[in-house]
Amino acid sequence: MKKLLIILAVVFTAQFGFSQKTTFKQDLIKLLEITEYSMDSYQSELLLMIDESKHEDFKKDFAVFKEDYYIRSAEVFQEEFSQAEIRELTSLVEKAKKSRNDTLLQYSDVGKKLREKQSILREKLSHIGKDYEYLLSKYIDKSKYMELEVEAVEVESGSYGGSGQGTGSGTGRR
User: Fold this and answer.
1) Cβ pair 144, 50 in contact under 8 A
2) 43: helix, coil or strand?
3) I want to staple 76 with a disulfide (CB 3.0 to 4.6 A). Which of 94, 95, 115, 124 is the partner?
């Protein structure tokens, strides 16, 4: 009987620990999404640079990458922040967006901690960027990428779309 109780205790402890990680990951994903670091927004932009014949393969690979990104990010953030702090950050960001008051996050203790930890987080997450670059290198159509960059420069300078501003010829070339 004692063995059964010990086994149940171990199983419940393991299950509780796993569910906490899942919850932490879910909370982190919510934070990333409201701070515009959502992988879904990146996917939409990237599809513009990928030949349509490769879209389905890219979406499959990107889904795998995205899951890995969130798992690895959660591991890194969990080393620096508690789940309660991630939830507090999420709440503060939501309130700041609604009230258009950036100081809510800036002057909070958890906001200050986030600023202090940014370089550590960036360093720990940098290896994920290399995986991201590799994934993109398999799919990005270089000519589409260049066209989008030129269009962005023209829009920023006001020379795109015949607005009468700027000196661009509208050819998409510099």
Assistant:
1) yes
2) helix
3) 124
Q: What are the tokens at 54?
A: 């490769």
DSSP class of residue 140 equals B
Please state, in angstroms and rounded to a whole number, the distance separating the CA atoms of residues 91 and 109. 13
Nearest Cα to Cα of residue 35 among 126, 116, 135, 105 = 105
Non-local (6+) Cβ contacts of 15 within 8 A are none
**Angle made by CA atoms 113, 117, 119, in degrees to the nearest 5:** 150
- Residue 149: predicted pLDDT: 52
Q: What is the overall mean pLDDT for the chain?
A: 74
Judged against a pLDDT cut of 80, whether residue 2 lies above it is answered with no
Of 69, 89, 91, which is closest to residue 25 (Cα–Cα)?
69
Look at residue 50 and give its three-state secondary structure.
strand
Q: Rounded mean pLDDT of 64-77?
A: 90
Q: C-alpha angle 133/136/137, rounded to 5°?
A: 85
- Mutual angle of helices 39-47 and 55-80, in 10-degree steps: 150
Token pair of 13 as six digits: 């402890």
Q: What are the helix and strand counts (H, E) for the chain? A: 7, 0
Helical segments of 81-166, H only: 83-99, 103-106, 109-139, 142-157
Looking at residue 22, its pLDDT comes to 53
